Structures are given as structure tokens and as C-alpha cells.
């Protein structure tokens, strides 16, 4: 547990125990009490610190990893950063295969954290040899003594959240949580957290957030992998063009889809209304709340927990860049002018 005046042996002791913060303004037009689990308070600024530490420590316990070994992963950035951070402290080499959709900031950060980075094309199928999955697999075969974290297909990803995020939320809400709303990428966060929470109270409603252009929502509803659902979208870390086994579809009650544009505006609104500078998928999760709220999902006595997975600083060249927003056409349909809050004195 974190204590204010405590000295820590290293950063790893600070992973988890993130705050649950009441949202006082952004959803005030809806019934219910809304709380954000703000994962940017982890030392690596995202929820992925939890899985990096947990999976690496499980491998150590099994004797698979010893200092000097190499850890390999595919990642949109956050998991890579967390693995690189844990690797530095524990003495491993870190090799990452990332999607070209990842922001330049994220790739620069990974390199700064000592990782060797392979940037792979985003819009190729998962079985294409250029995809980041295939590149990681090949590197794992080539590098002796390497461990492949494989977060999309590793059940330990679920266990990490079952053992930390779930119990934390249960304690923080004193068991009064009624809804959990979380983005689904690998599905580890929502599945592990939901599994723990539903074991405490099976009536808790678990709502996943998916992107238009992803197969996850349809798979949940029909158990059909429909390739026709797939098209490029901009939000990083949310939705998928494959079905991850790190998602336990049985503990999720429903999925809501959100657009790139509305999620981007909602991310900006979280900052302006709550003072919380969080990432693009936090905007997506909050956008799902807006849609559910409009549909009358919530009652006055409900306690809704929304997971905000990472920090806004990772999106300065995207959602928080007026130039990027303009390029996407995101300012066209909204009245938020790019220059609204800035004046140039000449
Ligand atoms: N948001 C961001 C920014 C992410 O990087 C991820 C992970 N891909 C998620 C949300 C989704 O978390 P999970 O993989 O546990 O479903």
C-alpha cells in the first residue's frame, strides 16, 4: 500500500493502488454516481504496469526468466513502456514490435526506456509476416532465452487484474459498485476486474467499450468472427481485428461502440471539466457513459466505475493537437474552434 511519507525501494513498489476519483461535472446531467479509476497514477502512467510486473514475476517464479534474458512483446505502446520500465529495474533486455499506428511520442518513449523497437505496418492482417504479432514470434524464435509476453493470448493478463484492479475497486467502493465500464483491447483489464467483482456480487453490470472497425462487440453477441466489421480507425489500444483469448467474454454483459471523433472530443472534455489529463481511450470509456446515460441506463443510487487507462501526455501529437484534430476533420462538425483558447499577441 502506498503511504504519503514512505520511501520506496524502487518504482515497482508503486504499481497499483491507483486512486478512484469522483467525477463531479462531466456526467452530472445523468443519474448515478460516477467514479474514475485513474490508472495514470501508476509509475509507468498506465494500467499496463500491472500486467508487466505480474507476468514477469510469474515467469521468474517458474524459473523461465533470469536476469540478462530478453523479454519480447507486441504493443501499442503502453505495455511496451511498462515492460521496458520493469526490465530496467530487474535487469532484462526488452524488445518490442509495435504498430505504425502508434504515436511518434510513444515510440520515442520506448527507445528512451532502453527498448529495441520494431515498427510494423498497422493495416495488415494478423497472419501477415510483417504484422507485429508475426515479427514478435519470429524474434522469439531467433533470440535464445527470450520470453514472449503475448498479452493478447496470455491468461496471466486476466489474472493480473483479477488480483489487483478488481480487489482495489471492490475495497474503494466498499462493495457498492453497480457498474463497471472499461475499454477492451486485449480484454485483460475488463475480464480480470469483472471476474473478481462478479465473484463478490454477480449483479454488477459489466460494460465493455469497443471501436467501430473492431470485431469484438459482434463476437460477444454472436460468437462469430466477422471480417466485414474490420476497417481502420484511430483510437489506439481499443478494439481488435482478432479475438484475444485474454478476453473472457462470459463476464462481460454488453459492449458499446464509440466513434473516434466523439471519443476525442470527450477526452478533451474530461480535461476541461474535471482537470484530469487522460488518454484517448479514457475519452472512449467516458463517451460510452455519455451514450449509456442518454439511453437512461443509470439510476440515482448507482455507483459506476469507469477505468481511465493512461495519461494524456502520450497523445500530444494526436487528440491534444489542434492540428491533428483539424486534419481528421474533427473540428468540422463541432463548434469547438481550434483557436478557442489561444491568442497570439503580435
Ligand atoms: N487503453 C489503452 C490506452 C491501452 O493501451 C489498452 C491496451 N491495449 C487498453 C485501453 C485496453 O486494455 P486491455 O488491453 O486490458 O483490454
TrEMBL record:
Q: Does the keyword Transferase apply?
A: yes
Q: Which domain of life is it from?
A: Bacteria
Alphabetical keyword list? Pyridoxal phosphate, Transferase
The reply on keyword Methyltransferase is no
Q: Which Pfam families match?
A: PALP
| Cofactors that this protein relies on | pyridoxal 5'-phosphate
| Organism, scientific name | Flavivirga aquimarina
Provide the E.C. number(s) assigned to this enzyme: 2.5.1.-
Membrane-crossing ranges are none
Query: One MF term in GO for this entry?
Result: transferase activity
Concerning InterPro entries, the annotation shows: Cys_Synth/Cystath_Beta-Synth, TrpB-like_PALP, TrpB-like_PALP_sf
Tryptophan synthase beta chain-like PALP domain segment(s) = 13-310
| Protein name (Swiss-Prot/TrEMBL) | Cysteine synthase family protein
Q: What is the lineage of its organism?
A: Bacteria, Pseudomonadati, Bacteroidota, Flavobacteriia, Flavobacteriales
Amino acid at each position: 500500500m502506498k503511504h504519503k511519507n514512505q520511501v520506496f525501494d524502487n518504482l515497482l513498489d508503486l504499481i497499483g493502488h491507483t486512486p478512484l476519483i469522483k467525477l463531479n461535472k462531466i456526467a452530472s446531467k445523468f443519474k448515478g454516481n460516477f467514479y474514475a479509476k485513474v490508472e495514470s497514477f501508476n509509475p509507468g502512467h498506465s494500467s499496463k504496469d500491472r500486467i508487466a510486473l505480474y507476468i514477469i514475476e510469474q515467469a521468474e517464479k517458474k524459473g523461465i526468466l533470469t536476469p540478462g534474458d530478453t523479454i519480447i512483446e507486441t504493443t501499442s505502446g503502453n505495455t511496451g513502456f511498462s515492460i521496458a520500465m520493469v526490465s530496467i529495474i530487474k535487469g532484462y533486455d526488452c524488445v518490442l514490435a509495435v504498430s505504425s499506428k502508434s504515436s511518434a511520442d510513444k515510440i520515442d518513449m520506448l527507445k528512451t526506456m532502453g527498448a529495441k523497437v520494431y515498427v510494423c505496418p498497422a493495416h495488415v492482417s494478423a497472419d501477415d509476416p510483417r504484422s507485429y504479432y508475426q515479427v514478435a514470434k519470429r524474434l522469439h524464435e531467433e533470440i535464445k532465452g527470450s520470453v514472449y509476453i503475448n498479452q493478447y493470448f496470455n491468461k496471466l493478463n486476466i489474472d493480473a487484474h483479477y488480483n489487483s484492479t478488481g480487489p482495489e475497486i471492490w475495497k474503494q467502493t466498499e462493495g457498492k459498485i453497480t457498474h463497471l465500464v472499461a475499454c477492451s483491447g486485449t480484454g485483460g483489464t475488463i475480464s480480470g476486474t469483472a471476474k473478481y467483482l462478479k465473484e463478490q456480487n454477480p449483479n454488477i453490470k459489466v460494460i465493455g467499450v469497443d471501436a467501430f472497425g473492431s470485431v469484438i462487440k459482434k463476437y460477444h453477441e454472436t460468437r462469430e468472427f466477422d471480417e466485414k466489421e474490420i476497417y481502420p480507425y484511430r483510437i489506439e489500444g481499443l478494439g481488435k481485428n482478432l479475438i484475444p483469448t485474454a478476453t473472457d467474454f462470459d463476464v462481460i454483459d454488453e459492449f458499446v461502440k464509440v466513434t473516434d471523433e466523439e471519443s476525442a472530443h470527450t477526452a478533451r472534455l474530461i480535461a476541461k471539466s474535471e482537470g484530469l489529463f487522460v488518454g484517448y481511450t479514457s475519452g472512449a470509456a467516458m463517451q460510452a457513459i455519455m451514450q449509456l446515460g442518454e439511453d437512461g441506463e443509470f439510476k440515482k443510487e448507482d455507483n459506476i466505475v469507469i477505468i481511465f487507462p493512461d495519461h494524456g501526455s502520450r497523445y500530444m501529437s494526436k487528440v491534444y493537437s489542434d492540428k491533428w484534430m483539424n486534419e481528421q476533420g474533427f473540428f468540422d462538425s463541432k463548434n469547438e474552434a481550434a483557436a478557442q483558447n489561444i491568442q497570439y499577441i503580435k
